[in-house]
């Protein structure tokens, strides 16, 4: 009995000592703070859509005629100007056709000159002269066609840009439609994104929307340059294109995001400085008279206007902004 009484006395002393060591919120000095009234506001509902950076000018260069590639001058990464000779083809059939057309044109030209002189001397008839003139024009047209075909054996760059891919090399057989190289202009890039059809109706040409390219560390507002006139029947999305400013690290193929408005709603907004995060908890301090009362809250979207509070706070309450980080629940405050 005496031993049990001693244990009780010791336990009571320990608990008493612990209570004396606990800091009291009432003992904390009063802090100067600033507060605002939390009000519901009409805020836009926004949706983030992913997209891909692409060159505005992009071309897949191919041959218009068949022939063996006897010269390939393109190298991936090479900067070229419009008219640069990418490749030359060795096309014997086209060369033979041109030589044949040249010979036929010369023969027809000589005959035309002979008949023309006779016609002027009233020796040949009008019908004969017209027939020879027609053959001469036909021969000249065949030669012009053959010369045009010869120009197709030289593959030229369509605009200033960079060779991004090479699909063929010297000795390969080039055929019409077979890609030889891909070229694009890296100075004119845009973000291409598939936007849900309901949100696409709210977009306007020329209006800028927030765009983020993480790989290029770019955060900018990019204007819409194109909106597809019809939606994709499979994905129910509309393709939009936004012009991007130049950036040293911006490249075609990079991942990007665009934030677009999808509607409006009423939301309770507080300044970002009012929301305190400790661990995984978020809370605010409500100014109740001269006391700061801690409220655990659940936040939503963050924007320049503030933080959306989904739960834990009601419209019209005063929340502490400046000085909230250093407050304790129940601590005295003054403004």
Write up this protein:
This protein is α+β, with helices and mostly antiparallel strands. The chain folds into 4 domains: about 25-40 and about 265-335, conserved putative lor/sdh protein from methanococcus maripaludis s2 fold; about 45-55 and about 185-265, Beta Barrel (Elongation Factor Tu (Ef-tu), domain 3); about 60-85 and about 155-185, OB fold (Dihydrolipoamide Acetyltransferase, E2P) (Beta Barrel), CATH 2.40.50.100; about 90-150, Helix hairpin bin (Helix Hairpins), CATH 1.10.287.470. Helix content is about 25%, strand content about 40%. It contains 4 helices and 23 strands. It has helices at about 1-20, 90-120, 125-150, 195-200, and strands at about 30, 35, 40-55, 60, 65-70, 80, 85-90, 155, 160-165, 175, 180-185, 190-195, 210-215, 220-225, 235-245, 255-270, 275-280, 280-290, 290-295, 300-305, 305-310, 320, 335. The strands form 6 sheets. The chain has a 6-stranded antiparallel β-barrel with strand order 3-12-15-14-13-16. Strands 4-11-9-6 form a 4-stranded antiparallel sheet, with no helix packed on it. A 4-stranded antiparallel sheet has the order 8-7-5-10, with no helix packed on it. The longest helix has 29 residues, at about 90-120. It is rod-shaped, with a radius of gyration of 40 Å. The model is unreliable at about 1-25 (pLDDT under 50).
């Amino acid at each position: 009995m005496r031993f049990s009484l001693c244990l009780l006395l010791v336990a009571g002393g320990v608990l008493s000592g612990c209570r004396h060591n606990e800091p009291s919120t009432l003992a904390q000095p009063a802090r100067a703070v600033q507060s605002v009234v939390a009000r519901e506001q009409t805020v836009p509902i926004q949706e983030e859509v992913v997209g891909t950076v692409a060159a505005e000018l992009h071309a897949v260069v191919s041959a218009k005629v068949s022939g063996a590639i006897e010269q390939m001058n393109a190298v991936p990464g090479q900067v070229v100007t419009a008219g640069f000779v990418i490749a030359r083809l060795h096309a014997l059939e086209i060369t033979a056709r041109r030589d044949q057309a040249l010979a036929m044109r010369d023969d027809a030209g000589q005959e035309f000159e002979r008949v023309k002189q006779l016609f002027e001397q009233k020796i040949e008839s009008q019908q004969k002269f017209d027939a020879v003139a027609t053959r001469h024009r036909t021969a000249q047209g065949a030669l012009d066609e053959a010369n045009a075909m010869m120009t197709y054996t030289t593959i030229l760059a369509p605009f200033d840009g960079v060779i991004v891919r090479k699909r063929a090399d010297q000795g390969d057989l080039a055929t019409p439609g077979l890609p030889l190289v891909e070229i694009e202009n890296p100075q004119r890039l845009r973000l291409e994104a598939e936007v849900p059809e309901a949100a696409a109706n709210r977009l306007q040409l020329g209006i800028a929307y927030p765009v983020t390219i993480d790989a290029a560390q770019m955060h900018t507002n990019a204007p819409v340059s194109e909106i597809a006139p019809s939606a994709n029947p499979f994905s129910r999305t509309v393709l939009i294109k936004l012009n991007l400013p130049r950036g040293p690290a911006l490249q075609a193929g990079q991942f990007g995001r665009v934030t677009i408005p999808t509607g409006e709603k009423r939301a309770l907004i507080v300044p970002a400085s009012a929301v305190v995060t400790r661990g995984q908890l978020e809370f605010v301090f409500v100014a109740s008279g001269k006391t700061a009362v801690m409220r655990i809250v659940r936040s939503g979207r963050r924007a320049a206007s503030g933080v959306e509070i989904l739960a834990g706070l009601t419209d019209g309450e005063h929340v502490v902004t400046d000085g909230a980080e250093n407050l304790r629940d129940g601590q005295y405050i003054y403004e």
